[in-house]
Every structure is written in structure tokens, then in C-alpha cells.
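Blackboard transcription, Thursday session:
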Amino acid sequence: MKNKSIKMRKQIDTSSRYFLLLCGTISVITVLLITIFIVQQGIPTFQTVSIKEFLFSTDWSPSKSVPHYGVASFVIASFEVTLLSVIFAIPIALSCAIYLSEFATGNFAKILRSGIELLAGIPSIIYGLFGIAVVVPFVRNTFGGNGFSLLSAAIILAIMILPTIINFSEVTIRSVPRETKNASIALGATQWQTIKNVIIPSSISGIVSSIILALGRAIGETTAVVLVGGNAPIFASSPIDMGRTLTMNIITDMSYASGVHMSALFATAMLLFFFILLLNLIVVLVTRKGAIHE
Amino acid sequence: MNRKTTNTLALSIIKILSAITIALLVIILGYLIYRGVWYQNQKEGEVLPITTSEEDFSLYATKDTKLSFISWYTLFSIAKGRERTLRTLTQVNEKIHFYVDPEVKEEAEAYLLTPIKDTALVNKDTTFEPKGGIYLLKKGKTPPHGYTSLPLYDTVVAVNNSVTTLFNNRKIGSVTEEQVKDLQNGTITNWKTLGGPDEEVTFIDNATNAQLQHTKGSVSILNANVFAEEHGIDHLSISRVEKGLNITWEYLTTNAEESGAFGGIFSILINTLLMILLVLFIATPIGVGSAIYLSMYAKNGPFKSLIRSGIDVLAGVPSIIFGLFGMLVFVQLFHLSFSLISGSLTLSLMILPTIIRTSEESINSVDKNTVNASRGLGATKIESITSIVLPAAKKGIITGLILAMGRALGETAALVFTIGSSTNIATGLTSSSRVLAQHIYLTIIEGQSIDKAFASALILIILELIINSIAKKMLRGEK
Amino acid sequence: MGTNLFHVTNLNLWYGKQQALKDVNMEIEKNKITAFIGPSGCGKSTFLRVLNRMNDLIDDVTITGEVLLNQTDIYKDVEIMNLRRDVGMVFQSPNPFPMSIYDNVAYGPRLFKKYRKAEMHEIVERSLRQASLWDEIKDRLHTNGLALSGGQQQRLCLARTLATNPQVILMDEPTSALDPISTSRIEELMIELKKEYSIVIVTHNMQQASRISDTTSFFMIDHNRCGFLVESGETKDIFFKPRDSRTEDYISGKFG
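(Written on the board underneath:)
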């Protein structure tokens, strides 16, 4: 028999408390540090470049003798690509969400669920590769242009965000109380009428949240879009033109940028981060508003 | 339209749109498997893929050369010393070792229209290299071990100059072996069928130079060494389709060379494994620790909400921004340079929210009454957690870890500016290294063979599928 | 006359600002079964937990007064972990650990010492015998404790407590989740165990209290939702000749 020291056991207990507290705070600390570091690198841009030019000029030409750093084309491209992708994705995603919650136990539903899981597990680089090989030629042959375009990026992104919208929407739709559905059916409504007039309106805030979450994912996607978007740092006047999003700008130029150019890239990152925080905030507000209404 | 039809119509539309999801999945996976497993490239060459075998010698080569045949022109360049490696021929990074049987030296020189260097001649002291070897040996003699025979293609489709001129913005491209046969047997009568000028086809057997020069639209099949000496006539390029297996055992087990231009991906797979292990090692204690803290220590209040918000925000940060952060902090500030450890640290932060969420769920599902019983017996809080809570939550936590590793495996943007890009196996934490998903990206960006990109992509997908099914099996085991 | 094990003076307890126990004074005797009875929410479980400092696990609890165990103040002069080894607790719902029967019983002792195999086995067997569970499970010691029936599980929890060789066993409504047969088995056990141990039991079941306990303490709740001790005494006195009319009312079922 060997005695275990109570003192040591208590020491382990106390030190583990501190360790676990530290672990708990690492997430918050990381978020703060990310903000601080990115801002610290991005702010010096504005010593040389005016905020107005940065935000509103479409002239991004860091290599000219008089360089210009305007990211307006990228902001527009980012929004264009993400909005298009959401528009493409919504009909399919909502249908899946409705189908899964209404016909949850069928065979097709099981297949659908596995399929969505698989789609969610495909890495973005592979979506990009598929985009180059299949989507780009398709866009080229159907719509003209050279195929590498914001449209191709939107198509690929749409597939990538399907699981996000489906999963969150499905949870919301399922949470509509059965009594509400039953009340509608009992009054003689068809399934579709119930869906259209009762279920969707009740879950609208959750559906909207899922869409905004998907927007957040889409706007931050880099690997897939940089391979199919064309990456021309100019204003894309139509979706079949080559364009560059905020994320594409960062990953492309960062490998060789220096000085003001590099600061401008970090300023681009600041802008991207700001948009994402904004979207997160909107989600919180929408869910709170929805909760109040329910 | 009455309600019933609207209902049926609407539900059908919903089903169809849902089915599109499955269709997309099938198309994507199917295409990836197809491009990943087989490659099919169109290649253009000078010679027809037929053997005339009139010479008294045969050609042999070692298997690693990946040569399926040799054209007269290639042999010519090798003999002349112009072609020293197999890189341009078959993308194999190996020097060419050319051997000639002295018994056929004169014949070979006449055949190739070039003198053969003495260094290439075989004598009793010659040791045959096991790799990159090409041997011109007299017929009937047995080649050394490891050398297999190689067809020699040496015929050329010679044509009158009129056939290959640019005419009304049309110029004849390359032709297939089938089309040459059709020219021979008279199925194709006019060159415009092949995209050439409007000229009648005149096929002459074994034409002389004079014949070809003077007859418009004339074509003949000549030996390459005969054609080489003629002037005033042209030849057609032959296109052939090269098929083969993209993913071979060799590909998986050979190291990458020259930044992935040659060789296989073994070194990259090893680096990927090392990275995953590192990420696991770093992220697990922090992630599970956070989950334990949130579930069993933190009191409800503003601090706990702050931590939760932190986790939610962290989960939404795009990977490229993690990459920038990693570059600023790990690569530059901590002076870890572009290395395995910088990339692993960056990825660990990125997957923290995933680990925390799944672990917390598992820990919360453990009956806390058992913790009270443990405390009642005199155990400290941490003792109770490690003896009771963690073992009970083990399955869920491990499943979450496996899924998080799956995410880390597919990540690219966060690694591009942190992990480096060397294709060699990492020798230490601070070695620059390249991992699978990132390799696919670099292969495409650097303009390397896209077939290789698909092969790597297929391997990545297979790994992800394996990881996902392991996680699923564990979840099922829990119920 | 038995010697006093616990000597509680002026005990007050607050959950945050809400007082839950007021001015409790009590003596608990050795080798006896003491029962706490009273209506729901009157603080009897809270008071039970004062005796092994389990209330310390709850945030924002304030305690004043003195609790002596064998003349030592358990809130000042005793190491908590040792206290909990000497004062064991069985809870209302059986809560065996998700491990083997053997490991369940061995858990407590293992916290304090490293045992050799033979020694540990001796302790496990002794505890399971005392809890009247040994014969039923002696050939499946290494099966999971959760696979037992409810009554068996509760006896396992008892064995677990006995393994650390406590002086006192606290029991918080130990049979309220069990069927009548399991209940009477546990009651028989308690009577057997009091020869070696002292037992304090909180119970809703007055018949149980009158059947098995030697001493009974009756708690009530005042209009401020604070619990207090009405009276303590020998069980037969409390039940047949209570001093306080409130006790009499409760016993005769007028409220509670």
C-alpha cells in the first residue's frame, strides 16, 4: 500500500483549473489577436492611400510607376459571386430541406442525407479542380467568353454552400410544432398548402439565417474561386467576364507583394473580416427577432 | 388549376430539385474517379505507329523509362547526344544510358544517318544500368536482365507541299492512323475532308522525291531515314491517343521530385500524415480542455457568453485570414519560418471550434450525478472528470476529432502562406513541406500536368471518404 | 448512552441571499440510525450535505456555525477529501459509475492509496458482502455496474461507500426510487450496518423512519422559505409523544 499525497492531488486539481480556464479563453484570445494583427498590418496603407480611393476606386494597379490600390471591383465581384451563388442554391437547398423534414424516413431521404454529407465533405480544392475541368468549359460553350468567370465561380460556390443552407434550414423547419402542421391539415389544406402557408412562414427567420451564414461562407471562400474566377484585377462588367474577389486578391498578390502593396492586401483582409463580422451580427439579430416573434 | 394538381406539381418540383443534389454528387464523384484513374491525352508525333522491322537489330529499354515505343527521330537524337534525359519523352526524371551492340554498329549508323559514339558501344566490361537504359541489340541475341523489347516506328507520311500549305485560313492539322489508312485505300479522296486544301488525294506507294514534288496532292509512306534526306517535300503529323492508369502503385510510393513535376506523391503523403498528427497533438488538449471548461467549470454569465461568442466568431473566420494570421505570428513573429509547425499551428486554431462543439456536446450528455458520487467519495473535481466523464464521453469526442482531422486534410488557403512548399519529406518541425490538398492547388497554379492533379485529387477524396465512414461507424457504435 | 459523533451548533446556511437553514442545533449519536423527516423543501437534504461538505460544490453558499465531527470542526480543521472518505453518501437515484462492479467499489479506496491486487480484492469482497450483494454478483465482478437492477445498483452504491471504511454513512432518500422488496432489503441492511457504522438518513417515508431509526429529527419550513429544526429525539418519543404540536400535526398527516 502506497499513500497518495493529498497535497499533490489538490495541486493537480488547482493547476488543472487554470489550464482549463486558459484553454477556454484561447478562442477569444485568438479572435482578438487576429483582429489586432490584421488591422496592424492593414492600417499603414492609409498613410499613402486615401480611404476613399481604397474603397471606391476600381483601379488596382500596384505595379505601375504610380501605383493605385482601389478594391471596389473586388468588393463588387465578391458580392456578385456570393449573391449569385445563393440565388442558384436556394431553390435546390430549400427543396431538400423541405423534403427531408416532410419525408424524413423514406429511402430517398436517407440517400439524400448521405449525399449532402458527402458533398459537405469534399474539400474546396477539389471543387476548384472540378470547376476548371467541367464548369469552365460549360460556361464557355453556353454563354461565351473564355469560361473563367464570376459565373463559373458562382456555380461552384452554389454547390459548396448547399449543405450549409440545407442543414440549418432543415433544423428550423423541423422545429415548427407538429400541432401547427396538424391544425392546417385538419382544416383541409394539402401538403403543399401547409408548406407554403404555414411551415415556411414560421421558419422564415431560420431560413434567412441559414442563407446569411451561407453568404458568410461563400464570401470567405478562396481556393475554389481563385481557380475558376479568372482573376483579372479589373472591373468585371458582366458575370461571364473574368473577375477577382477580395479573397482572390489576397491569395494571388501576397506571394510577391511588399511595402504599401502588402499593406493594401492586409487592408483587403480587414475589409473581408469586417463584412463577415457584419454578416454574423445580422444572423444574431435575425435569430433574436425571429425568437421574439415566435 | 385545382389544389390537388398544384399540390402534386409542387411536391414533384421539390422532389426533382432535391434529386439534383444527388445528381450533382454523382457527377462530381464520377468525373473525379474517371479523370483520377485514367488519363487520356492526345499526342502528336512524326511517325506512324507501325513497325517495318527490316533491320537486323531490335531495341530494348528498361521498364522505368515508361517508353512504349521509340521513333526513328528519338533514336536519332539519342545517338547524336542531343537527348540526354527522359524528361521530355516520358516525364521520367532519369538520364538516358544508350548502348549499341558493336556487331550492328555499321548498320545502325547507316540506318540512323549518324555516327555512333564509341562510348555507346558495348564491350565485355560494360555494366548495364538498371534505369534509363536503351539498348540497340542485334536480332536474336538476349538482352540483359530488366530490358524489355521496344517497337521501333520509323515511317513517315510524306506529302507534296501543296497539302500542308495555308489555304483560305485553313491548314491541315494532324491526322490519325485511321485516316492514313483511308488515304491509302482511297476512302478519302480529297484533302479538304481533313481540313486541307481542295485537292485530290494521290497515294503513291514508295514514291520518289521527284514524284512527290511534282504531283499536287500526292502522299506516300516513306521510311524516316529516306525522308530525312529529301528536300522540297513535307510530312503530316500523326496524332495518337495515349491512355493509361493515372494512379499506379508506383505513383503512390515514389517521392515527388522537382517540385512535383516528376515522380510520385509518397513524400507528400508522408508530410500530410505528419501534419495531421501534429494538428491532432496540438488541437486536442486545447479543444477538449475548452469543452471541459465550458461544460463543467464556467458559470453562466457574461464571461461564458463571451467565450461562446469567441468560438462562434472563430468558426466563421475564412481560412485565408487564418493563413495571413499564421504567417504574421508563427512564420514571422515566432521565427518558425514556412514550416510544418507553422502550418500545423495555424490549422489547429482553425479547427478548434469544431472540436470544442462536438466535445462539449458529448461531455454534456454524461450524467452529472455520477460526478457527485465521485466527489462524495473524496475525489477532486479533475479526478472525477478524468475517471468518470471523459471515459464516458470518449466516443463522441473521438468522433469529433476524426471529423476535424478530415477538415484539416482538405484545407489549402490556410497553409499556402504558412507550411512551405517543398516536396521533400519533412525532416523536422521547421522543414518547409507540402501536403496533399495544397499540392493539388500548386500543381494547377504552376501549370503542371493536370492529370497528376486529378490523381492526387482522387487520393484526397478517398482519404476523406475513409475518414467520414470511420466517424459514421463510431457514431453508430454509440447507439 | 451513545457517544456523540456529530455536534452541530448554530448552523445557518444561505444560497446566495436566500437563507435555507436557520439556527440548527443537533447531536448525532454513534452507532445509531438517525432519520431526518419533514415536508418537501424544508432543508433536510441540504442539512445532510452540510455533514460531508457536499454543499461546497454549489456556488455562492454561505455557512455559519460549527459542525464538529469527533470534536474536530469539519469546516476548519479537516481536509475535505479525508472527510468525504470518513463520511460516505448514498444518493437518491442509484448512480454507479460506468465501469465494472469491481472498479466501482475500488474507486474510493484507490483515490487515497495504491493497493496490491490481493488487498484490493479483499476490500471489494468485504464491502460487497456488507452490502449484501456479494453472492449475487461474485462471479461477474468485471461486468458493468450499469447492467444491474435498480435495487442491486443501490446496494452497489452502498458497497462503494463502505469500501472507504467510513464512520458515517449519509443516505439521501436511498429507497425512494426502489420497489418495496428492494426497499426492505436495504432497510435490513441498515439495521445490520449500524453495529459498525453510524447512519443518517433523509426520508419522506414516515413509516420507514419509525421502522428503522433510533433517533428522529423533524424539520419544517418557515414563511421565508427557510428550513429549521423543530425537534429531535428518540424515535418512539417523536412518533408517539411529540413535544411540539407541529410535529404531531405532521406525524398524523395533517400536512406535508
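Lecturer's comment: The beta strands of chain A are 2-3, 60-61, 68-69.
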